[in-house]
Predict the structure.
Amino acid sequence: MKKVQIQITTWNSKQHLPRLFLGIQNQTEIEYSVLVIDNASSDKTIDFIRQNYSNADIIENKENKGFAKAHNQGFEICTSPYILVLNHDVELQKNCLAKIMQTIESNERIAAVIPKLYRSLPDDTNSGIIDGLGLSMRAWGRVVNIDENKPDKPQNSHIKQVWGGSGACVLYRLKALQSVKDEYGIYDERFWMYKEDADLSWRLNRAGWKTVLEPSAVAIHDRTVQHGDRSMRADKVKQESIRNHLMMLRKNLSMRDWWRIPLIVIYEFLKFIYILIFETQNLKAYGSLNNNSQLQH
C-alpha cells in the first residue's frame, strides 16, 4: 500500500498535463499512487495520460459529475492513509509532498496540510505572487484565499494553523475525512464545484481537527481567472459560487456563530442588492438554493 494517493480530477485538461506530471515525478522521497478521475473530457486527456503516464490509475466518467462528486469517487476507493487533492493546473515543486507529509505526521489531530501556493507567470515560472496560504473566514462569512494576489513576505516562512485548505492543493488525512462525512459525502456533492473545500473545512474545524500551512513546501498554480476578475467569470460560475456560499452558511451556521449573524445578514443583503441591479441573470442562484437542487450544467 502506498502512503499517499495523489488524486486529480480532469475535464479537457490535456494542455496542463505535462507540467502537472512533471511536478508529480519530482516527488521522489514518498511512495505514492496517482488516481485521475476524468469527467468526460473530449480533448483526448485520457489518451494522453495512458500514452505518457501509464502508471496512473483512471476512472472514466461518462458525464461531467463535477469536482465534488468526482473526488468523492476517489475518496471511496482510497486505501492509503493520506490523500493529496491536486488541481490539474498545479505543479508541485521538488519534495513538496515529503515536506507536507512530515508536517501531517507530526500531530494526529492535523487533518490537512497545504503548501505555499504561488501564482505562475505566463512562461510557467514562479511569479513570487501568492495564490493562497490556506483559507480564512471573514467575520461576515466570506471565505477567501489568504494573501491572494499579494507579494510573498518573510512572515510567510513560518508553519501556522489556518482555518481551511484550498482544494487546489491539499494533503488530507483519510481518517479525518471519514470522520466528518455526512449524508452528502466527504465533499458535499450538491456543490458540484466551488466552496466544497470551504464546507469541508468548516466541518473539520467543528470536529476539532486542524489545518496547517507548511511554507517550506511549494507549488505553483496556473490559475485561469484571478481574484477580482469578476467580469471574466461566466454567469454559471458566478451562480454556482453564490448558491454554494449560501448553502454552506445555511448548512454550517450554529448558535456558536451568533456574533457573525448580524454581519452576515448585512453583507448578504448588500450583495443581493448589487446582483438585483447589475447581475439580474444571476438571481437564479437564489431560486436553486430554495429548491435545494443543482444548477443545470
